[in-house]
Amino acid sequence: MKELKDYSLLHHNTFGMNVYTAYFVEYDSVDELCAFLKQKSYVLPLLHIGGGSNLLFSGDFKGTILHSAIKGAEIVSETDETVDVRVGAGEIWDDFVAYTVQHNWYGAVNLSLIPGEVGASAVQNIGAYGVEAKDLIIAVDTVCVATGEPRRFSNEECGYAYRKSIFKQELKGKYVVTHVTYRLHKQPVWHLDYGNVRAELEKEACPLTLENLRRIIIRIRKEKLPDPAKIGNAGSFFMNPVIPQKQFDALRATYPDIPSYPAGEGWVKVPAGWMIDRCGWKGKALGRAGVHDRQALVLVNLGGATGQEVMQLASAVVTSVKDKFGIDIYPEVNYI
Ligand code: EPU
Questions:
Q1: How far is the CA of 31 from the centre of ligand 1 (A)?
Q2: Is this structure's pTM higher than 0.90?
Q3: What residue's CA is closest to ligand 1, atom 14?
Q4: Is 283 in the pocket of ligand 1 (CB under 6 A)?
Q5: Across the beta sheet with 20-27, what order do the strands follow?
Q6: Which atom of ligand 1 lies nearest, measured to the CA of 224?
Q7: pLDDT tens digits, one per residue of 151-161
């Protein structure tokens, strides 16, 4: 176990903010985590982070930041059709996706190159190109913060919805994810109908294999999304709002080219990136915080931005979208 004082979080947040935490604790096993939580002598507030790819710090953190270094992936169950793999929360998410592709297991490939760690995949219900983590997760192992006792959640108990889970809502801060069990398929299961995925595959005229699909997904992401190692950002800054069909029909009368995704009977999901783009924000900046020039849903640190500057830009963007489209958009990024 690593316990550090006055520790810089520069390498623990992809926005690239050089903020400090009073205490930083990194544990290697469930036993260490349980013991740490049971002794209760840590400095509050307690915040558990993953890869820091969805966090925006407004300043230094006065409490204790916990980070998992629980690693490893093991097959816990297998049939002719499926394989269940239990993965440590501290594994890098994309390493796990690469591992599934190497083993020729289907289900995770559309989630290639999403930054962050395995634990966060279960909290955030990460998603891309028509697949969400919830489609693969069968169980989430956690430890209760209050008691230090382990508890397993089934997929149903996790209350998954678009970018949501019980761990982000009702039970926020109450359980720490230690392992996630995913079910992968041995027979082909493809999701090719989102955006330009199929078109890109056809353009290359390459055979449909997991390796090729992974390569194409990675290329699409790299074309649109800035690399946090080069320019600080946290991926999509906002969630795509879900609005009633009637409201959408009225909008489409004014903006015939408005894109949309079905979101259940009577509801439509509208890309916030498209609306922000239409408000003229793409490539614009407020101070040292900017709107990415290739994907308006992404806010970037142009160099030395503070959390406050990014938050000011975010609220200006929210106001513009509300004024032009009458729609409220909400951050996907967690403000700390
Ligand atoms: N669009 C614009 N201008 C922009 C950005 C987007 O017109 O500046 C349009 C696009 O042309 C497209 C539509 O908006 O018609 C949707 O864009 P895109 O396919 O890039 O996806 P998104 O809705 O902006 C979501 C996820 C991403 C995920 C992609 C692909 C959310 C909040 N974001 O973005 O997730 O990679 O779909 O599945 O749901 C993330 O969560 O950090 C993330 C990157």
A1: 40
A2: yes
A3: 274
A4: no
A5: 2-8, 20-27, 61-68, 46-49
A6: 20
A7: 999 999 999 99
